[in-house]
Fold this protein.
Amino acid sequence: MKSAPLLILTSVATLILWVSACDILRNPLPETARIEITSQNADEAELIMSLNFLTGRQAVEEDGLVIGDTTIVQFLHADTLQITLPYSSEHDIKQRHRFFAQLNIPDEESDHHFRMRVWIDGDQRYDATSDEQVDGALKFLYYFRAGEDIIIRPQP
């Protein structure tokens, strides 16, 4: 009699592991992020990058009513770089499965034209130009959670 509950428990555990394995095979964990920044008429730019951050949601209110929400990013570690253009770099994201990049546009009134592209494991996930900037920057936020890619792109 004692072996029947053990057999059921073992069967359930095997089923859970099998379903989890199928999910991982469908959506393998991301390993690399590659960023490329180009400009037709600028030689340098400022880039903020992070592989170590937390995200959360915050309500957006208007006249006391919640009309939506926004994503808040809290950096645990970030680098602010003065880059020479064209710029390209690849990053290992196996440990935390996340990547943040923000290209600060020097002056919204300038004639500088920038393009920022990001690939996750070789798949292009972001392609934007300075014409699509939000609050003076191009921003890309990616993280992998519960078997799915989460990409948040601010809308102009």
Q: What stands out?
A: The chain has two domains: 1-29, 31-152. Residues 1-29 form one domain.
